TrEMBL record:
This is EAL domain-containing protein. It comes from the Bacteria. Residues 24-280 form the EAL domain. It comes from Colwellia hornerae.
């Protein structure tokens, strides 16, 4: 009997594994057709200077307008394609769309954020032809100055070759774009990356910012990253600024740049111009 139930367990296990493989394959096929059918859209979340009251730019955040399931967040689909060539294709789609958006805002002569930040996985930067591909994308939008494009590098996995990534970044900077280190402090080797990668901006991860007012360890990390940015002569922005109080505390620590629900949630492109025109920093931020 024991043997038989053991056998059954294996059988169940196999079935579960087969099922997982099937689900993965179906998810990949669904994303493939979503790309072909243009179901992905970019939402934009403002990045502001709390001290001067100016809008620095917006970050492009991908969404899947799913015909049946509604608007899906990156967590629902990006992990599926993480190790698939489709992630490269999607990454290029995002850059291309962001450049189109800048150009549309510019031709309409709107009072707009000066830059768009696009998220890219660090592994994407390891593609041997990344610089060439970026050159091609920029060339397709001759009316957009490359300095309006910022690339946020996500250190989701350890880089095999920091030297190569650094060289790629230097070559891209020569094209006019700039870089930010995203989710700083949570990745594999933040300090090595900070020292070796020519990123102009550091984004303090939202997990530290969220609890900084209640957790002294998180407060210490936020304070430390701000000091680190200063010594390395990099700009620093806090993400996940959910309340006015967070903003106040960050300003007191010398971090003027911020992004978060307390300022604005990610919004469709059509809502950006009005938001930019209407936004005022909180009165308590003026010191
Ligand atoms: P991220 O680049 O660190 O972006 C910040 C995420 O936190 C966004 O989630 C944003 O909506 C959310 N957020 C912003 N402010 C607050 C806040 O005050 N509180 C809270 N709780 N959350 C806040 P989203 O849009 O779901 O994106 C999640 C992640 O997916 C991004 O994290 C980024 O790593 C990745 N991602 C998004 N778009 C792209 C893309 O086009 N390409 C790639 N490769 N990754 C992307
Ligand atoms: Mg980001
Ligand atoms: Mg982040
Ligand atoms: Mg993140």
């Amino acid at each position: 009997v024991a043997k038989e139930s053991g056998k059954n367990r294996y059988h169940l296990f196999d079935t579960a594994q087969d099922e997982a493989i099937k689900v993965q394959r179906e998810s990949l096929e669904a994303i493939r057709s979503a790309l072909d059918e243009q179901q992905f859209v970019l939402y934009y979340q403002p990045k502001v200077n709390m001290k001067t009251g100016s809008v620095m730019g917006v970050e492009a955040l991908i969404r899947w307008q799913h015909p049946k399931r509604g608007l899906l967040n990156p967590i629902d689909f990006l992990p599926v394609i993480e190790n698939n060539p489709m992630s490269i294709e999607m990454g290029e789609w995002v850059i291309d769309n962001a450049l189109t958006q800048i150009s549309q805002w510019q031709t309409k002569g709107l009072n707009l954020p000066v830059s768009i930040s696009v998220n890219i996985a660090a592994v994407q930067l390891q593609q041997p032809d990344f610089t060439q591909r970026l050159t091609t994308l920029l060339a397709a939008h001759p009316d957009v100055e490359p300095r309006y494009l910022e690339l946020e590098v996500l250190e989701t996995s350890a880089l095999d070759d920091v030297q190569h990534v650094s060289t790629t970044m230097i070559n891209c900077i020569a094209l006019g774009v700039s870089f930010a280190l995203d989710d700083f402090g949570t990745g594999y080797s933040s300090l090595t990356y900070l020292r070796r990668l020519p990123a102009k901006l550091i984004k303090i991860d939202q997990s530290f910012v969220r609890d900084m007012l209640s957790d002294t360890d998180d407060f210490a990390i936020v304070e430390g990253v701000i000091a680190l940015a200063k010594s390395f002569k990099r700009e620093v922005i806090a993400e996940g600024v959910e309340t006015i109080e967070h903003g106040k505390a960050l300003l007191q620590l010398g971090c003027h740049l911020a992004q978060g629900y307390g300022i604005a949630k990610p919004m469709p492109a059509c809502d950006v111009p009005t938001w930019v025109n209407d936004w005022k920093p909180d009165a308590s931020w003026q010191v």
